[in-house]
Amino acid sequence: MINDSCGHTAGDRMLAMVAKAMQACLGPQEQLARLAGDEFGLVICNRSALSVAQLLKQMIAQVSLQVLNDKNCNYKVGLSIGVAFGRAPYIDAQELLKDADIACIAAKAKGANQIHFYDDKDKELTYQRNAPKWAVRIAQAIEENELILYYQPIRGLGSGPQRQRMEILLRIQEPCGRILAPAQFIAAAERFKLMPDIDKEVIRKAFLWLSLHPVLWPDHCISFNLSGNSLGAEGMVEYIAQQQHIFDIPSQCICFEITETTAIQNRNRGMEMLKQLRKLGFSFALDDFGSGFASYGYLRELPVDYVKIDGCFIKNLAVNAKDYAIVKSIQDVCRVMGIETVAEFVENQDIIDRLLSIGINYAQGYAIGRPQPLANYREQYEMRLAQRA
């Protein structure tokens, strides 16, 4: 802010004042260095955690007293401090610096003038530390064809003939056979902008699978999740159209899902992409509806065919009158708009009974079916048909 308002010379003056104030708090054996921009590093030896905390609080107090006067304006700055401990002789300077940097991110998240001590047990900090490794692992999984597809069935609750529906889910299968769930790697993929590559690979694999089972085309529809990174990504529409052409898949077999939050955050470019894909004949579902801030009026703008009601309203539907009222209102509005509804997180028959009374069109959850490898679907489907015959 100081650089933007007063210029870099004034910014450098402020940094010099901050460095001098911090240095004044340190003993002769403690070192201060500027790492980059407005980042400094401290090396503190032979102090207890309590002593370090007291020193850093003193440092924050001294820095807060520094005032830069420039162009009749006064400027002050604060400190966010991340602390990591190393014990000789097992000190890896690079690892220690990385841990301190991660702790500093956590300190910033707390607000101004905060201190955070790195802890291996801190789940969020552990994720921040391991995220780069996961990014490499994901890229490797794509390169070595380790992404595998699962499906979860979506059952129609109405009477009469309906398309068989399922949502495509992603897993990583390691060489040892262990299956990694998306909760372990999706956040890292989003952080490092790998989701478009993942989405493309999922689309390619699913289109390939459909091309091998044309008998399913007349009465099946599979849904894919499109991530926020993919929504409006350059070349994504062209890639989808190319895969459809290569595998000759009918558009009515495909439905793309975007979350409510993603749709809001990527409103303009997302809307354009949806319009382009709709011209190709694909359908769309708005996922996790109710979890974000979308209003019913927003549904009028989005070219969606289905609304998937967030599981937070479904899991207690049978015992919570407020959830029942919310789900019913969503169903009533969607019915008037010509949008079909899907209830997520359906885990028992009591919930199914409530959904039927409300008029929800489809249900998805463990009471309907658990995720299974897509490779097994055709065999299981034919077994069900044989049992009905």
UniProtKB/TrEMBL annotation:
Write down the Pfam families for this protein, in alphabetical order. EAL, GGDEF
Start and end residues of each GGDEF domain: 1-120
Entry-linked PROSITE patterns: EAL (PS50883), GGDEF (PS50887)
Top-level taxon of origin: Bacteria
Ranges where the EAL domain occurs: 131-385
CDD domains documented for this protein: EAL (cd01948), GGDEF (cd01949)
Q: Give start-end of the signal peptide.
A: none
InterPro entries linked to this entry: Cyclic-di-GMP_PDE-like, EAL_dom, EAL_sf, GGDEF_dom, Nucleotide_cyclase, Rev_trsase/Diguanyl_cyclase
Identify a single GO molecular function assigned to this protein: cyclic-guanylate-specific phosphodiesterase activity
Matching PANTHER family: CYCLIC DI-GMP PHOSPHODIESTERASE PDEB, CYCLIC DI-GMP PHOSPHODIESTERASE PDEF
Name of the molecule in the record: Diguanylate cyclase/phosphodiesterase
Species whose genome carries this gene: Shewanella baltica (strain OS155 / ATCC BAA-1091)
